[in-house]
Amino acid sequence: MCSLLCEYGEIYKMAFDGFCIKRIVKEYNDIFTDSRISKIIQNNNFDIILVIKKGKDTYNLFVSANPSMSYTYLISDKGEAPKNALNFCMLLRKYIANGKILSVTQKNNERIIVFEIEHLDEMGDLSIKKLIFELMGKHSNIILTDENDIILDSIKRVNELTSSLREVLPKKEYFFPSDLKKINPYETDLKNEIVNIFDSYSEEEKSKLSLSSLLVNSFEGVSKNFAKEVLFRAGKIQDTKLVNTDNDILGKVSDSFEETLKLTLEDKCFYEYIKDGKLFDYSTFRYEYLNDECECKEHSDMMLSEFLSVFYSAKHDQNVILQKSNDIVSLLNSHISKNKKKIAEWEKELFECENKETLKKYGELLKAYSHSIQRGKSANVLDYYTGENIDIPLDENKTVIENSNKYFNDYSKAKRRENKIKELLDQTDKETKYLEDLLLYISLSENTSDINQIRQELYNKGYIKKNAVIKEKKKSIGIKHYIYDNNYHIYVGKNNIQNEEVTFKVATGNDWWFHAKGIAGSHVIVKSDKDNSANEWDMPDELFELCGALAAINSSHSGLSKVEIDYTRKKHIKKPAEGEKGMVIYHTYYSLVAVPDISRFSLTSVNS
Fold first, then answer.
1. What predicted TM-score, i.e. pTM, was given to this entire model?
2. How far is CA 324 from CA 81, 315, 406, 436, 454, in A?
3. pLDDT(470) > 70
4. How far is CA 502 from CA 234, 344, 454, 591, in A?
5. Is-contact 129 37, C-beta < 8 A?
6. What is the SS3 string spanning 135-163?
7. What tens digit of pLDDT does each residue of 63-87 get?
8. Beta strand extents in 242-319 (DSSP E only)
9. Which DSSP symbol is given to 290?
10. Band of the pLDDT at 486, cuts 50, 70, 90?
11. Can you give the C-alpha Rg of the chain in angstroms?
C-alpha cells in the first residue's frame, strides 16, 4: 500500500461503476462460492468485515456503505472486533454466522452485489438469506433479507421521513428504488432506446441536459467517465447540450455504446491511468480518451479485487484518520483562533505603550521646571530635547511635583505592561506555532496509531482530558522506513514523538539528518548498510535529492514548487535542555533546495 501511495500520491478518481462491479462480482463468485462466513466484525456505523473461509484459505471481505465513499475489497488485516458489538452486527451473527455462500451476483448492471447465504435456522432447518450491498454513494446501504426479500434489518435504516421513495426497515419488502430504475444496457435495443429517451425530453430539458448526462441518467452502471469514453469512440463527439444534438449524432453514440459494452465483456485485463505521477483513474477496458493526458498501465496478471485492495484500503485509512482526528483538529483550530485574537488585542495594547517615553519626558520636564510652573490645567515649558515649547497636561488638584511623579508612575506601569505583553506574545506565538505544527502532523498521519500519538501528546500537555486518549497495545511507534538502492535506509517521522525517536534513537553519530528550514516538518535520517557508522561516509547526489524531497513533502511547505532544506550529520543535532519532544538545535549544517516530488525515485517501503 505504502509504495503505491508514494509513487502516485492522492487518488483523484475512482471508477467504481456498474462495469467495475460486474468484474468484481465474477471474481467474488469464483472465490466465495461454497465458502463459509466464520466471523463478522462491525467497527462503525457504515462498515462491516466478513471473515470467509474456503478450505485452508481465509479472506477478509471489507464492505463500506459510507455515503462519502462506498466500496468493497479484500483486506489483509481484519483488525480487532469491538468489545461491544453493534446491533446490526449482532443480527448478522445471528442469521448468517457460519453460513455457506451459495452465490454472488450483481443486480442487473447496477452497483448492487447480492450474497445468497445458506444457514441453519433456530429449528435446525436449512434457510436462505440475502446480504445485499448497495454501493451507490449517498444512497449506499447494507441490507439483510430473507429468501422472500423481506428485510430483516440494514446498517442504515431509512424511514418515510428520510426518503419518500423507499423505506428500508425491518419487515418491509426489499425492492430497488423507483427513481433508480434505469435501463440495463445489456438487455435493450440501445439505438431505439436512446432515440426514445431523447424524444421524451422537453425542449427546456434538452437545453439543460448534455449527451453524457443522457447516458448516465438513463442506463444502469454508467459513470461520467464511461460516458466520456462512449462519446470519444463515437468520433470524438463533443459533450454538447441535447438541444444541439440530431439523429445522426444519436446514431453514432448508440453504435459506440454497443461497441464499448462488448469491450466490457471481452476484455479480461484492467487498466490504471497515471497523470502527473498520480493515480488518476482505472477501468475494466482501455479508456482511449485518456491517451493524450495519462500514462496507461495494463494489468493481466492480477485480479481487479487485488488491485482495488491496494489503494482503496489506503483511501479508507485516510477516511478513518479524518474521522478519528476531527475532534482534535477542531480543538487545535479553536485554540489557534483564540490565540490569534489574543495576539491582535495585545498588539493593540503594545502600540498604546509606545507613548511611554513621552510620559517619562513629561515627568522629567515638570520636575526640572517645577519652581517656575503654577498650578493649572497645563504647563507650557521648553522641551530641552527638541528646543521647542510644548504644553504638558496637568491635574490642577495636584502640585507640579505630584503631577511629575504621576507621569513617572504611568511610565513605569507602561514599561512593565509592555514587557509583560511582549512575554505573553512570545509565549502565545510559540504555542500557536506548536498547535499549527500538530495540524501538519495530523495531515501526515497514515493510521490511527499516528493520531493516537498526537492525542497522547495533547493529553500530556493538558489540552484534552484523559478519557479522550485511546490506550493502545504496546507496538512499534510507526516510523516510515524505506530502502533505496538496496543499501540506504531512510526513516521519516510523522509527528513530534516519531521525530524524537528518529533523531535520538534510530540515528547514530554520522547518519545524515534532513529537515525543512525554519518550518514544521518531518525529521528524515539516512543510514547505510555498507558504510561504517563510525566513519563519515558520503552519499550519492541523488540520495541527497531524494531525502530533501521527502523532507519537503512532509513539511508545511509541501505545496510549494521548491523548499529549502537543512541537512547535517546527526552528531551535530542537540536537544535543548528543556525542549519539547521533537525539538532540536544545530549550528553546523548545509542547505539544499528540494522539489517536493519523489515520483522519479524507486523506493521500497519496509513498513508504514
1. 0.61
2. 17, 14, 58, 18, 11
3. no
4. 56, 37, 16, 20
5. no
6. CCHHHCEEEEEECCCEEEEECCCECCCCC
7. 999 887 788 988 887 777 788 889 9
8. 270-275, 278-283, 295-299
9. G
10. confident
11. 34
C-alpha cell at 475: 507496538
End-to-end CA distance of the chain, in Å?
9
Cα torsion angle, 550, 555, 557, 559, sign: positive
Question: Among 438, 554, 447, 442, which residue's Cα sits nearest to residue 492?
Answer: 554
Segment holding 570, helix H or strand E = none
Q: Give the SS3 label for residue 105.
A: strand
Rounded Cα–Cα distance for residues 283 and 226 (Å): 9
CA distance 504 to 17: 49
Contact 249, 211 (CB under 8 A): yes
DSSP codes of every residue in 400-465: HHHHHHHHHHHHHHHHHHHHHHHHHHHHHHHHHHHHHHHHHHHHH--SHHHHHHHHHHHHHTTSS-
524-528 and 488-492 as β-strands: parallel, antiparallel, unpaired? Answer: antiparallel
- Counted residue by residue, the chain has a size of 608
The three cell numbers of residue 509 are: 553519530
The model's pLDDT over 110-119, given as tens digits with 9 standing for 90+, comes to 999 999 999 9
**Cα angle, residue 491 at apex, residues 485 and 495 outer, rounded to 5°:** 155
Average pLDDT over residues 408-413: 92
What H or E segment, with its residue span, contains residue 311? helix 304-352
User: Which residue, 9, 3, 7, 60, is CA-closest to 318?
Assistant: 9
